Structures are given as structure tokens and as C-alpha cells.
Amino acid sequence: MTDLDTPYSLASAQIAQFRRDGFIKLKHVLSPETLVHFGNEITRLTIELNTEQRPLEERSTYNRAFLQVMNLWEQSPLVARFVMGQRLGRLAADLLEVEGVRLYHDQSLYKEPGGGITPAHADQYYWPLASDRTITAWIPLQPVPADMGPLGFYVGSQGVAFGRDLGISDESEAKISENMARHGFVFEAGPFDLGEVSFHLGWTFHKAGANRSDRPRSVMTVIYMDAAMRLVSALNVVQANDRDQWCPGAREGEVIATRKNPVVWHRG
Ligand SMILES: O=C(O)CCC(=O)C(=O)O
């Protein structure tokens, strides 16, 4: 599994592309063998730890989008090995153009067959973090063709303020999609090959289609932040919950260095 820790060759033009577009999709980041080895454990734990038992038609739009299980790295040494992988960590730091990255949290996002859309949103709405140096690696554990709900991105939307106060909901989908269309933002939503991984900034608007196939769309995500990231006061209840859950004991104004936020990769 050398691909877990060895550097991925990233061109400076790709870093510039990420700076401009707020996201990037990279092919052949992880091998099929690595994805099967860790993916089986991630999917197994997701099914085991999931608490959502209602049928799809009885759930909210958010809860129809995926089964969501967080911080699997704390549940399994095998998943911890994956989440602490040096290749993804280094890619995150290089794309963010920072000295190093810490873990904010991981989450498995399992879109069931028949699962609904993931409404448009920007992740950082949920996070009490001082800067925009946050990045999510979205790692499909199988290929994601168009009918399984690949993640799509509004190109260059990371600087747009409208919609930053909207959590994932029917309202965020309607208002953000309308605003993006009105201002001519291109929505890029192609399929993902096996081994392809996307990275997006915390303020980049994104969404995913429904899973119209008869197969589950199992995806692992790792959210990294600048290793020097500081905590700020929570703007809303969800940010307060996030703070207590993912950075317990961190203090406002200080670097977030709790036991749940290890440095994954650092230069030198
Ligand atoms: O997997 C999805 O459908 C949504 C993923 C997402 O919004 C994210 O990883 O930030």
C-alpha cells in the first residue's frame, strides 16, 4: 500500500487551478487494492454504526441524501491508518498552500440506492474556524458514474458570500442554485473513476445528484485544516456543536490542537 504515504506528483499549475477554481479532481490518487482494503472496513463500519433506520420516504431531504457516520478513525485502527495517510495529507497542505494540516474530522457519506440529492451548500457554514484554509478530500470507494450522484462543484464560487449562512436543506438547494445560475457560475459534475479523489475548499459551493442506480455510493471524506488554524466563537448552534464534538477543549483565539486534531502532515 505504498500509495497511502508516498507523494503524489502535483504540478504547480494544478495548485494554481485549485486556487482559482476552489476545487480539483485528481486521477489515480489511490490504487484499487488500497480502496478495497480500507473501503471494505469503512463501509462495514458505516452500516454497523449508522443510526438512521427510517425508510427513505419518511426522512428529510438532508437525511435522504446519505447515511453519515463521523470520525471512523476513532473506531478502527485500520481506518485511522487510512485517514492519517501521508499522500492525502500532503496533497491537502500543498493545495491549501500551508506548512501543514491537521484533521478536523472524517466522515463516511453513504448514498443508498434511491438516496436523494445532496443540496447545494458550503461546508464552512458548520465550522467555527478562523480562516478559509480548510479542505475536504472526497474519496469514492467505487467508481461514481452520473447516475450514482457524483459530487459536483460551482467553479470559482469560493469567494461568494451569498448562501454562506444556509445549512444543507431544500432552502439551500433552491437559493444557492438560483444565485449561482444567475451569476453564471459553471457547475462541474462529471463522474469519478476508481482512484479519483476531489478536493474542495470549505467555502466552495457544491452539491450531488440522487443515486438513481441500484448500487450504494460509498464515499469516505477527510476534512483537513491548516495546522495553525485557530478557533473562533461559534456563529450559530451548529458551529457550537461542531466545536464541542470535533475540537473538545479548544479555546477561542488559540490554535486547535486537541487530541482529536492531530497534525496529519507537515513540511520538513
Ligand atoms: O457526498 C455527498 O453527497 C456530499 C459531500 C459533501 O458535501 C462534502 O463532502 O462536503
UniProtKB/TrEMBL annotation:
One of its GO terms (molecular function) is 2-oxoglutarate-dependent dioxygenase activity. Keywords: Dioxygenase, Oxidoreductase. Pfam families: PhyH. InterPro entries: Phytyl_CoA_dOase-like. SUPFAM superfamilies: Clavaminate synthase-like. This is Phytanoyl-CoA dioxygenase. The lineage of its organism: Bacteria, Pseudomonadati, Pseudomonadota, Betaproteobacteria, Burkholderiales.
